[in-house]
Amino acid sequence: MPRQRVAILISGRGSNMDALIAATKQPDYPAEIALVLSNVPTAAGIEHARQMGIATAVVDHTTFGKDREAFERAVQAELEAHRIDIVCLAGFLRLLTPFLVRQWDGRMLNIHPALLPAFKGLDTHARALEAGAKQHGATVHFVVPEMDAGPILAQAAVPVLPDDTEATLAARVLAAEHQLYPQALRLLAAGRVTVRDGQCLVDGIPVSLPAGT
Ligand code: GRF
Predict the structure, then answer these.
(1) For residue range 170-204, what is the model confidence (pLDDT) as tens digits?
(2) Which of 89, 159, 177, 182 could form a disulfide with 110 if both were Cys (CB 3.0 to 4.6 A apart)?
(3) How far is the C-alpha of 27 from the C-alpha of 30, rounded, in Å?
(4) Does 1-104 carry CATH code 3.40.50.170?
(5) C-beta 139 within 6 A of ligand 1
(6) Which protein residue's CA is at the shortest distance from atom 14 of ligand 1?
(7) Tens of pLDDT, residues 67-90
């Protein structure tokens, strides 16, 4: 099976992008990073991708005004030009409309810094602390038109410790994200994932949190 061509969409520092790129250097990894696309021209991650010799594109949403679909058509054109098979959102801070999401049904992943369905949206670490959660983590899920709501492909849990601050908790979750996203992409790119009734199956078995979490 040819390696799947993956685009990573970012808006900022791109540490999950780095983790995905590093993973694809393994000889048996079933995907390659064929494009890094940012909606923010100054995103640190895009410069880093360039330095690593990866094809990059910038589609600056501010040049499209309120026309979200025009922005998404420009993104889609880049994805098609680079013959992309799978899209990974990694800190991509634009809400996508059904127009783009539908084109990538079952082929677009996102990583969210919480154990969905808990703490959808922003400021997840602060909200987990505020809520007194004892367990927090990260989720890789398929993207659907509703925000942070698609079928869950993989989750990693981390403990919330008594003296945690937002920063210490965020760092613990981020380290887990860097393990989780490459594992999840590997499963999808290898063709081991199916979705049935809104639930992901890996090798035909419904996904669950790893034992002991
Ligand atoms: C991560 O915490 C990710 O879960 C969220 O945005 C952050 C992106 O960080 N969607 P980075 O740009 O990958 O370092």
Answers:
(1) 999 999 999 999 999 999 999 999 999 999 999 99
(2) 89
(3) 8
(4) yes
(5) no
(6) 15
(7) 999 999 999 999 999 999 999 999
